[in-house]
């Protein structure tokens, strides 16, 4: 009888909601989005544009964030075409925000344990990338300044997000290639008033159906 009652309780629908970890003091929550799938092989300065799949992925991640129970304070994107266009699509879900573009979160390659990658870089290329990203990190990952919780969306690139994760976890920064990250996945970092940080989520792509999920090095059919 008791087991039957317990089962009935589990089956009865009840109101439920998911929330991000919270503290009494305000926190800044930064939601990092890797851009959508794009046309590869474009060697122009701002590289390839989103393909049809990338646009669909962008709408899916925008819809997921729009369903979260908070109001975002800002949305920014890299100036590379694939990130800028992802940001533009996402911004349609947040008409109260103005999309800003930043060169300091453009894709670049930092030092890695992979010697085959390092051999392909120009002299000083990794160092220049890391210097730029250090400045971007200091610009973005700051404690809240408005006396309340703040929520920011940052649309950028796989290398950038993986490097950020190694930095905020204080692990070997050359280990970033040990992680993979899907297009239009969600990575969440919280910054407290004392400047300490916590990784809340990494490369969450549950909003994208399996057959529409793409990763670095796995090329989707190009339309």
Q: What is this structure, in a nutshell?
A:
31% of the residues lie in helices and 17% in strands. The protein is α/β, with parallel strands linked by helices and 223 residues long.
Structural class: alpha/beta
The parts where pLDDT drops under 50 for at least 5 residues are 5-11, 13-17
The CATH class name reads Alpha Beta
| Beta fraction | 15-25%
Overall number of structural domains: 1
Q: Main sheet: which strands, in order across?
A: 3-2-4-1-5-6
Mean pLDDT: 90
What is the CA-atom radius of gyration, in angstroms? 19 Å
Q: Tell me the distance between the termini.
A: 59 Å
Structural shape:
globular
Query: Percentage of helical residues?
Result: 25-40%
CATH architectural arrangement: 3-Layer(aba) Sandwich
Number of helices: 6
**How do the helices and strands follow one another from N- to C-terminus?**
HEHEHEHHEHEE
Question: How do the helices and strands line up, and which of them pair or pack?
Answer:
Blueprint (H helix, E strand, L loop, with lengths): L1 H10 L15 E8 L17 H15 L7 E5 L2 H11 L7 E4 L12 H5 L5 H16 L9 E7 L1 H12 L16 E7 L4 E8 L19
Parallel strand pairs: 1-4, 2-3, 2-4
Antiparallel strand pairs: 1-5, 5-6
